[in-house]
Amino acid sequence: MTTVWPSLEPILPSVQKPARYIGCEDGAAAKPPDPSLVSWLMIYPDTYEIGLPNQGLQILYEIANELDDARADRAYAPWVDLEAEMRSTGLPLFSVEHHTPADEFDLLAFNLSAELTYTNLLNCVDLARVPVRTADRRPEHPLVIAGGHCTYNPEPLADFLDAVVLGDGEEVIAEITRVVGEWKATGRGDRTEVHLALSRLEGVYVPSLYESIYDGPALVATRPIRDDVPEIVEKRTVADLGDWPYPKNQLVPLTEVVHDRLSVEVFRGCTRGCRFCQAGMITRPVRERPADQVRTMVAKGLERSGYDEVSLTSLSTADFSGIDGVVKGITDDAADTGCGPVTVALPSLRVDAFGVKLATQLNQARRAGLTFAPEAGTWRMRQIINKLIREEDLYEAVDAAYEAGWQRVKLYFLTGLPSETDPDTLGIAELAKNCVALGKSKGRKASVTVSVGGFVPKPFTPFQWFGQNTSEELQRKINLLRDDTRRANGVNLKWHDPKATLAEGINSRGDRRIGRVIERVWRAGGTFQEWSEHFDIDRWTEAMAAEGLDIDWYVHRHRHEDEALPWDHLSAGLHKDFLWQDWMDALDEVGLPDCRWTPCYDCGACTGYGIEHRVASALPPAGGSQGTAQDLGTGGSVPVQLLGSKPGAGTTP
Amino acid sequence: MSAPRPTVVRFRYAELGKVRFISHRDLARLMERAFRQVKVPLAYSEGYRPRPRLSFGLALPTAASSDAEFFDVALDPAIAPHEPTEAEAAALATLIDDLPARLSAALPDGLSVTAAAPLEPGSVSLQQAITSCTWRIELLDVAVDDAVDRVRRIVAAPELPFERERKGKLSTSDVRPAVLDLEPLGPTGRGVELEAHLATKPTSLRPAELVRLLGDDVGIGRVHRTHQWMTIDDLRSEPLAAASVSPPEASNGPTLRLAS
Ligand code: SF4
Questions:
Q1: pLDDT by residue (tens digit) across A386-431?
Q2: Is residue B181 in some structural domain?
Q3: Mutation test of the interface with chain A: which of B20, B29, B45, choosing the one with the most A Cβ atoms within 10 A?
Q4: Is residue A648's pLDDT more than 70?
């Protein structure tokens, strides 16, 4: 085995943040290169500081290294300065542990968490000295595979990936290792051989064994090219998170990364049923980690890592059964060690007073600001997206936050949602202004930051049929908000670039033809598309035009019910007719309760796989909100009463 | 009545190998975490975001290695009481003696704590106390004879005007007073090794700046700090001697001493 370190070391003093490339993290696997093992290179196709904290990658990295027949290293996309040096000196992509060239691994396994990293995936494969197109790879080349949320529509990357894993990777990683090990042991024959073996594993999709049939621009179907390949590839789901207490040795980086703290995943899946949220739809059902396991993982993790902050992660942590008890346990344990204060962080708060009570318990001394995600500005709109937060809930939450001493509140919203009207958009500004007024009525120097993102419809959601707003329309809505809040003291508006939203839209629901667009953008130098200084929408629109593909047709067009979707041959368990019904309900402004605490409506996520929710308590949480166990009839009229009762509030500043 | 001053301990450590690519900020975070890993509580600052009070000497440039780095840290009064009993004082002394080994075990490869000692009350901070550093600097793209000539010229120069950019403004100053001693030590695999004793105050000169003075065509390879010096009453001493390291004397290879 070779190492690039002697060639890399003299380059490092001249690049930005060289610590990105040295490894040495506590928790890094010490398993040395060994040709008898199946070797995985886990790659996050963005910078080290974004990729290192990724929990999915870390979990699989650790599990692979625990297998007797596998080992794993990690790699991240080199920043443009190092890439230029690598290309001029002929240095390949390398692992950070042993600085082994990437093409000496058996598998290059990418984590795909965002569409705008696709061009980086191609760049990493190319830097690994591996042909970017699957068809051009020979037996000696590594297998290029991917997992992560974006793989629920892997079609834009179909020409570049040998295999794709759908769903939880904890179990399938051992199965893939076995298949690749056999392929190696028999002398690495034709790649089709290993492709076929992989396609027999549940949850593994091999794009080259399927073909897409078109009728003009329209997709007719994507179907297997052989009889012995499954027509539909089903996702993998780990039934009990308690069986997988990973990462046990979370990586502790030497240099600053985006989430520089301990993370413990408290549950996976979410059945709140927000219709825009792909993560919630594809990770069903809810699987809670046993509370005592959470507490042990936190205590051990803090002790081992020396971190003084732990984040309890999930899609909605306040919904964890008995969360207040768990938090108390953690802070008690931390006090026992006597090594300074420990902060418990929740990724986002539930929009109600309970969420704030919880936050008060957590953040003792640090009053940095609280974040809520109402997602839409009016009750009508929130019924459409099934995020059933009443204005009352938000004002109670914000009120409680000010009471507890917070001065800064951050609110997350989406714009460009189905059937959104200008009054709906302006409702965002209204909410923000009312929150500021509430704070002022308490004599606080209240400030509210409003973060607005453009909505991108995602596969396997009820909104997968919706035509995304054009970037001009999104910009118009942002301008409306900007004008409306310009003179509103205390309201700070931030927004996501609508042009980046368009590029995401091209990839999100694209078919195989989009692969050529991604390749063009990459060849034109379009890497690091998540970074505004490197993003240029013209590269995307020019590539679409060059390929004769129509942006309107791909992004802005409403799909109809009987139309073939590029991901129809893949399954997250969800019945397509359930999703369609939910889409119709959305347009009728009809909400849907959380099936964790109310009867199952058979979306397919449990029923199809013979699994079920695993929750410690079948009762809705204390202060239950968002459409569960409460009268929602008053949704729209509440704020007037609420504000009327607060002196000094009710008028916008 | 002001609160009693907490016990401050001075540590010496080495930074070698791959970890030398981390930044100074990164290092402070690593040390903080190491104290929590060995469960030795530190005194925290007051305020909005309480932090342990670690203060370092002069920041080591990223990519340079060192045998002589230092930091001071205040211990939590709970383990270092202001007026300790005899038993408490003995326990604290043992704790401090054990800390270098314990911290080294918690730190990544390449970072090792080599000594620790309580600081006399009233000691000046490292930042104030350090007056000069000794470096080993690898010069690239230059032959030994050529390097010796260039060093001679620097040492012989009565003045060395040097242009620097600070906050977007160019200014020129004489850096000759900062060049205390230069000694070419002989060839390395890739270039020539130079030992340089450079002042940090009142005038300062960094290794990369010295290499620029030697000529635009000279490249810079490995940079290693061997000492940081304090000057007290005209006497030079290290902030804390390494427990087991004797002062480096003669090195191998041809040397040419060029005192200023
Ligand atoms: S199958 Fe039923 S219980 Fe399971 S997630 Fe779907 S609706 Fe909920």
A1: 998 899 889 998 888 888 888 889 999 999 999 999 999 999 999 9
A2: yes
A3: B29
A4: no
Chain A residue with minimum CA distance to B219: A10
User: What is the per-residue pLDDT for A367?
Assistant: 56
**What is the Cα–Cα distance from A167 to A651, expressed in whole angstroms?**
49
Contact (CB<8Å) A255/B63? no
Total count of domains within chain B? 2
Which residue reads 């120097």 in tokens?
A445
Mutant choice from A22, A97, A254 vs B, greatest count of B C-beta within 10 A: A254
In the predicted structure, residue A134 carries a pLDDT above the cut 70: yes
Give the atom of ligand 1 at the shortest distance from the alpha carbon of A595: 8
pTM, to two decimals = 0.92
Q: Let me know whether B67 and B108 are in one domain.
A: yes
Residue B1 lies in a domain: no
Residues B170 and B112 in one domain: no
Say if residues A536 and A503 touch (Cβ distance below 8 Å).
no
Give B130's strand partners. B230
- Last residue of some domain: B56, B88, B123? B123
Lowest mean pLDDT among A134-138, A340-344, A535-539, B199-203: A340-344
Class of domain A5-234: alpha beta
In angstroms, the CA A46 to CA A78 distance is 8
Judgement on whether residues B221 and B157 belong to the same structural domain of the protein? yes
Domain boundaries, chain A: 5-234, 261-513+549-641
Give B52's contacts in chain A (Cβ within 8 Å): 340
One domain for residues B148 and B52: no
> Distance (Å) from the C-alpha of residue B237 to the closest C-alpha of chain A?
31
What ipTM did this prediction achieve?
0.88
Q: Is the residue at B222 inside a domain?
A: yes
Contact A417, A453 (CB under 8 A): no
Residue A345 φ/ψ, nearest 5 degrees? -115, 145
Task: Give the number of other CB atoms < 10 A from CB of residue B55.
Answer: 15
Q: Is B26 on the interface with A (CB under 8 A)?
A: yes
Show which of residues 106-135 on chain B sit within 8 Å of chain A, judged by CB atoms: 106, 108-110
Classify residue B18: in a domain, yes or no.
yes
The reply to whether B68 and B111 lie within a common domain is yes
Question: Does the bond joining A653 to the residue before it have cis omega, within 30 degrees of 0?
Answer: no
Residue A351 φ/ψ region, left for φ over 0, alpha for ψ in the -120 to 50 degree band, beta for the rest: beta
CATH number, domain at B71? 3.30.70.580
Q: What is the pLDDT at residue A643?
A: 29
Distance CA A488, CA A469 (A): 27
- What is the SS3 assignment for A367? coil
With contacts defined as CB-CB under 8 Å, which chain B residues touch A340? 36, 41-42, 44, 50, 52
Of B123, B142, B158, the residue that ends a domain is: B123
Please enumerate, as own/partner, the contacts of A596-603 that have beta carbons within 8 Å and a separation of 24 or more.
A596/A271, A596/A285, A596/A286, A596/A319, A597/A624, A597/A628, A597/A629, A598/A628, A602/A575, A602/A578, A603/A284, A603/A573, A603/A574, A603/A575, A603/A578
Question: What is the pLDDT, as a whole number, of residue A401?
Answer: 85
In this structure, are B118 and B139 located in the same domain?
no
Question: Is A605 near ligand 1, meaning CB less than 6 Å away?
Answer: yes
Nearest by Cα to A543 from A524, A530, A557, A528 = A524
CB atoms inside a 10 Å sphere around CB B227: 17
Q: Any chain B CB within 8 A of the CB of A307?
A: yes
Three-state secondary-structure class, residue A300: helix
Distance from CA of B36 to the nearest CA of A (A): 5
Structural domain including B241 reads 127-259
Please state which CATH class domain A261-513+549-641 belongs to. Answer: alpha beta
Q: Which residue of A has its CA nearest to B51?
A: A340
| Partner residues linked to B12 by β-bridges | B70, B115
- The arithmetic mean of pLDDT across residues A113-130, rounded, is 97
**A406 is written with which tokens?**
């917070």
